[in-house]
């Protein structure tokens, strides 16, 4: 008996191939996230001490103590209460080790970044009426190094972006209630997002024109401001002021100079996926397409061009910005990432003629399109790949080095405090995150960000220091006289050339115990 075997070529139907292409942005983003991990510091530590401040409040919330910085001390020290609430559950797994909450917080950041990519894909597909354009735009945005850095930072940037992206899509899908809710939550993720509050006007108008009861229409008007009012109410209860301590201590209105504006513009364009001039070209293409599709462009134009420009202007008007490290550039990142999304959409619409407009996916038709429209793709590759490779490597290396700095200085010092100080010791600090989180001692934030009495002058700096049994600080922040009466017990440092967090001289941290020996710290 002879058996005849027929070999049939595997043929992908247009539907199957279309679905495979549509998941490309998600696959690319997850692969880029995996490649972004350089070493254990990237995975198990945070690049800013501010991320550990979030962990202090998140852990307090997880175990039912509210927004307490010290036990029994409610504080308005968080500028992102929604991020603390969202990331509180990971602290239920602290029994598995210090690494467990960190890994879960980073996983939440990655998932929020993935949500941004997928929502953005839907926005561009709906706006351009082209799934191909949505796929290309989302794939470009999925590789954005600042988005990847934000996912691993332990900070709230990706949460804010997910809310704003979701609000834009809700506007386009005519879901006014969801639009109102998401925009209303945004300021509790990042205060500067209050600039997005005019966006719900579209939702309010839609609800106002509906046949809903009058009471429901009035409720719709309150929905965007309720989250912010609730947080302001808590701040008033905790400190007697309507805004978090940080607003009064850090944010100071000033008239920016031309140099400040230049730095802000450079911060937008740097660290992205394309060179600056190509980034501007993408934004221009986005603007032209918005003008050509005015009926469908209201939401994308508002969220990806008008809002980020207002956001960056608000940052520049409230603080000085430097380009020396993530500590400074993070303020610009939300606005820069929204503009990066706009640029990605502009590029996609320039490139999409080569792959869109047909339901057929035969090799012949693909080859014809690529030959005919390959020049834009070739130009993008020539200018994009080198810029992206350099930016990706720089952000990846910076995540590893910044996280290592925090691990050596702040985390190590916090763990030393837990092991070598009495349980009832009062520790004075100026970096208030990891020292409180790991130290597990009553901690006085001498800067006032997490202590309303110091922030608002009810407790003077000298009186605060007099209450401290220990100081765990950067000596470079204070005059030598502060350490009279303190004995050096422990110190940790990194070489100045390896300190990459910012340009401040704070690569040396000491722990000093109050003593009657009258000792003074040695100079370093």
Protein described:
- With 524 residues, the chain is α/β, with parallel strands linked by helices.
- It contains 23 helices and seven strands.
- It has helices spanning 14-22, 24-35, 40-44, 49-62, 81-86, 99-128, 131-142, 145-153, 157-172, 176-185, 201-209, 214-222, 226-239, 245-249, 258-269, 276-292, 298-318, 326-329, 333-351, 363-420, 434-439, 452-455, 461-466, and strands spanning 68-70, 73-74, 426-429, 442-445, 470-473, 486-493, 508-514.
- It has a five-stranded mixed β-sheet with strand order 4-3-5-7-6, with helices on one face. A two-stranded antiparallel sheet has the order 1-2.
- The longest helix is centred in the C-terminal third of the chain and has 58 residues, at 363-420.
SSE diagram, text form:
Blueprint: H1 14-22, H2 24-35, H3 40-44, H4 49-62, E1 68-70, E2 73-74, H5 81-86, H6 99-128, H7 131-142, H8 145-153, H9 157-172, H10 176-185, H11 201-209, H12 214-222, H13 226-239, H14 245-249, H15 258-269, H16 276-292, H17 298-318, H18 326-329, H19 333-351, H20 363-420, E3 426-429, H21 434-439, E4 442-445, H22 452-455, H23 461-466, E5 470-473, E6 486-493, E7 508-514
Parallel strand pairs: 3-4, 3-5
Antiparallel strand pairs: 1-2, 5-7, 6-7
Span between termini = 91 Å
Instruction: Say what oligomer this is.
Output: single chain
The portion of residues assigned to helices is: 55-70%
Q: If strands are numbered along the chain, what order do they take across the biggest sheet? A: 4-3-5-7-6
Please state roughly what percent of the residues sit in beta strands, choosing from under 5%, 5-15%, 15-25%, 25-35%, 35-45% or over 45%. Answer: 5-15%
Low-pLDDT residue intervals, each spanning 5 or more residues:
354-364
Rounded mean pLDDT is 85
What order do the SSEs take from the amino end to the carboxyl end, as H and E? Answer: HHHHEEHHHHHHHHHHHHHHHHEHEHHEEE
Taking all Cα atoms into account, the compactness measure Rg is: 26 Å
- Helical run tally: 23
The major β-sheet equals:
5 strands, mixed
Number of strands: 7
By secondary-structure content and strand pairing, the structural class works out as alpha/beta
Based on Cα principal axes, name the global outline.
Answer: globular
């Amino acid at each position: 008996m002879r058996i005849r075997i027929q070999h049939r070529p595997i043929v992908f139907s247009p539907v199957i191939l279309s679905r495979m292409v549509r998941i490309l942005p998600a696959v690319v983003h997850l692969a880029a996230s995996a490649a972004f991990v350089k070493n254990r510091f990237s995975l198990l530590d945070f690049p800013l001490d501010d991320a550990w401040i979030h962990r202090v409040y998140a852990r307090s919330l997880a175990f039912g103590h509210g927004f307490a910085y010290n036990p029994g001390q409610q504080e308005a020290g968080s500028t992102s209460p929604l991020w603390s609430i969202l990331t509180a559950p990971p602290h239920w797994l602290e029994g598995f080790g210090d690494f467990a909450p960190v890994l879960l917080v980073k996983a939440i950041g990655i998932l929020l970044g993935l949500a941004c990519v997928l929502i953005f894909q839907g926005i561009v597909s709906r706006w351009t009426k082209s799934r191909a354009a949505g796929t290309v735009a989302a794939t470009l945005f999925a590789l954005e190094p600042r988005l990847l850095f934000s996912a691993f930072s332990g900070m709230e940037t990706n949460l804010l972006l997910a809310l704003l992206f979701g609000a834009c899509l809700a506007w386009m899908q005519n879901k006014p209630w969801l639009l109102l809710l998401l925009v209303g939550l945004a300021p509790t993720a990042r205060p500067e997002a209050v600039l997005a509050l005019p966006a719900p006007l579209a939702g309010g108008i839609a609800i106002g024109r509906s046949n809903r009861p009058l009471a429901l229409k009035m409720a719709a008007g309150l929905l965007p401001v309720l989250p912010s009012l609730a947080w302001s109410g808590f701040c008033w209860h905790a400190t007697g002021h309507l805004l978090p301590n940080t607003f009064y201590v850090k944010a100071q209105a000033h008239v920016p100079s031309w140099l400040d504006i230049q730095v802000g513009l450079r911060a937008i364009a740097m660290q992205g996926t394309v060179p600056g001039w190509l980034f501007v070209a993408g934004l221009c293409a986005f603007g032209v397409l918005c003008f050509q599709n005015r009926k469908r462009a209201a939401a994308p134009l508002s969220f990806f061009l008008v809002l980020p420009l207002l956001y960056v202007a608000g940052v520049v008007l409230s603080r000085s910005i430097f380009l020396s490290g993530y500590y400074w550039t993070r303020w610009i990142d939300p606005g820069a990432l929204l503009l990066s999304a706009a640029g990605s959409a502009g590029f996609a619409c320039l490139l999409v003629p080569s792959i869109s407009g047909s339901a057929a996916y035969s090799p012949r038709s693909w080859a014809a399109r690529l030959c005919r429209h390959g020049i834009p793709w070739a130009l993008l590759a020539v200018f994009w790949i080198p810029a992206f490779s350099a930016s990706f490597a720089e952000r990846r290396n910076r995540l590893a080095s910044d996280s290592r700095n925090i691990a050596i200085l702040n985390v190590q010092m916090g763990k030393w405090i837990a092991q070598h100080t009495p349980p009832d010791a009062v520790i004075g600090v100026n970096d208030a995150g990891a020292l409180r989180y790991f130290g597990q001692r009553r901690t006085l934030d001498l800067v006032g960000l997490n202590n309303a009495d110091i922030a608002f002058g009810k407790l003077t700096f000298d009186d605060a220091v007099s209450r401290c049994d220990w100081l765990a600080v950067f000596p470079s922040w204070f005059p030598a006289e502060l350490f009279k009466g303190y004995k050096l017990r422990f110190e940790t440092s990194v070489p100045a050339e390896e300190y990459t967090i910012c340009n401040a001289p704070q690569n040396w941290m000491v722990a000093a115990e109050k003593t009657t020996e009258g000792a003074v710290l040695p100079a370093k």
